[in-house]
Design brief:
mainly beta, 1 helix, single chain, Porin
């Protein structure tokens, strides 16, 4: 643009802004600003009640005139993983998915773990808290790595809260997030209960309050019968289908104290399939955390021990693989499988911004002649990492994982190992 036009543009801008100020406000005899037009003019309202202000919880803004505050949150995460040895399916580091210890090494670069959420909160006229929360991820339809690397949106959470009632999709009551270690891979270590599903819950504090009290929660959640269905030849049946006879019923008792928490959760289920009588199943999970200030100001130990009959679908290492029960091909009855999972983690803070986590865990499946060859007998995995928070919003990390799976093979067992390295960077917003 020619320099001749620059003074003209500056004069026009000055005239416009001066005219806007003169048209919208003046000083009255009391020295207060008053509006000459008496209506909205330009970018700002003349009624302060309609202006955007800070919301009622951290990071939120208030919606003018509604009593609702909302926050848009999420993060951008980019990660790279390299399978050092052993072929394992891309995605979560699940020992059950080890396919070949002599397979080629695999490298993956992805931003699919990024997320976005909207959190809206208010209160009823009587002061009852009301909340709506929705979160989306990008691990939906697979993308095309050859061109755009696009990935489809996937629903993670969508729930509402009215007082002590919750309904919608969120983490299962069996999933205790505070006992999870800080890792780049959500599937590590083995032994986790990692389930999001729709349900309805009632969760009152029966003594004290959050952070120093006891909470009781009861709920009904979506059920899925995760069965191995065999025909009379002992092969997977293409015609039989599972039947979800009733929702899963859950209850937990949780105690929170100054140095940690303890949670005991139970679930009652009914499993069914075509031409098969539904049978009861269930399990228990004990999880917790313990702060260890004697080793470091923010050091922490977490643990979990879970198991039951017809409980396999809740263990991330066994989910969707038919480890709740096996349908006897001769009698048509369901033989419930006994499964268990456990893990132990420890996090040490080297400084205010640098920390490491060490975690080990495993899952176990009872010996059953009903299971086909190649079924998992036990699986273990471990992880060690180093995380650095450059700021409150930016974190970078390096992680090494190892896994072993033992499978049934006739009268004996086969073993397969896998190793992986992850690096990631994450920016919260």
């Amino acid at each position: 643009m020619s320099n001749v036009y620059l003074p003209v543009l500056l004069l026009l801008l000055l005239h416009t802004t001066t005219g806007y100020a003169q048209a919208t406000s003046s000083t009255d005899s009391t020295g207060q600003e008053s509006s000459r037009t008496g209506r909205y003019s330009g970018r700002f309202p003349d009624d302060a009640r309609r202006a955007v202000t800070a919301g009622t919880f951290e990071g939120a803004i208030a919606v003018p005139g509604t009593g609702v505050s909302f926050r848009i949150g999420g993060f951008i995460q980019t990660s790279a993983s390299q399978d050092i040895s052993g072929a394992i399916s891309p995605g979560l580091f699940i020992p059950r998915l080890i396919t070949n210890t002599d397979g080629p090494s695999r490298f993956v670069f992805t931003a699919r773990n990024s997320r976005i959420s909207v959190d809206a909160r208010s209160e009823s006229d009587g002061g009852t808290p009301i909340r709506a929360f929705i979160e989306m991820g990008f691990i939906g339809a697979p993308g095309n790595e050859g061109t755009t690397n696009a990935d489809g949106l996937a629903l993670r959470h969508a729930f509402a809260q009215i007082g002590e009632f919750y309904f919608g999709q969120y983490w299962s009551q069996l999933t205790d997030l505070e006992s999870f270690p800080e890792t780049t891979d959500a599937g590590a270590p083995a032994g986790k209960i990692f389930v999001r599903q729709p349900g309805i819950h009632y969760a009152p504090w029966i003594r004290g309050e959050e952070g120093k009290g006891i909470r009781l929660a009861v709920g009904l959640e979506n059920s899925i019968s995760d069965l191995t269905l065999l025909d009379r030849r002992g092969a997977p049946s293409p015609t039989l289908a599972t039947i979800d006879a009733a929702p899963d019923a859950l209850v937990y008792l949780r105690q929170e104290g100054r140095r940690g928490h303890l949670q005991l959760t139970g679930v009652l289920r009914y499993l069914g399939a075509d031409s098969t009588q539904a049978v009861p199943a269930g399990g228990l999970s004990l999880t917790g955390s313990l702060d260890l200030p004697q080793f470091g100001v923010r050091d922490r130990l977490t643990f979990a021990a879970s198991g039951g009959l017809g409980f396999g679908r809740y263990l991330v290492d066994l989910a969707t693989a038919g480890y709740d029960a096996v349908r006897d091909p001769l009698t048509g009855e369901l033989d419930l499988l006994r499964t268990a999972g456990t893990y132990l983690t420890y996090q040490h803070w080297w400084s205010e911004t640098l920390r490491s986590t060490v975690a080990v865990g495993g899952v176990f499946v009872e010996a059953s002649e009903a299971l086909p060859a190649g079924a998992v007998h036990r699986a273990q995995s471990g992880v060690v990492n180093l995380f650095w928070s450059q700021s409150e919003r930016a974190t970078f990390g390096l992680e090494v994982l190892a896994a072993r799976v033992v499978r049934r093979a006739g009268e004996g067992m086969t073993t397969a190992d896998a190793y992986r390295a992850n690096v990631f960077g994450q920016l919260n917003f």
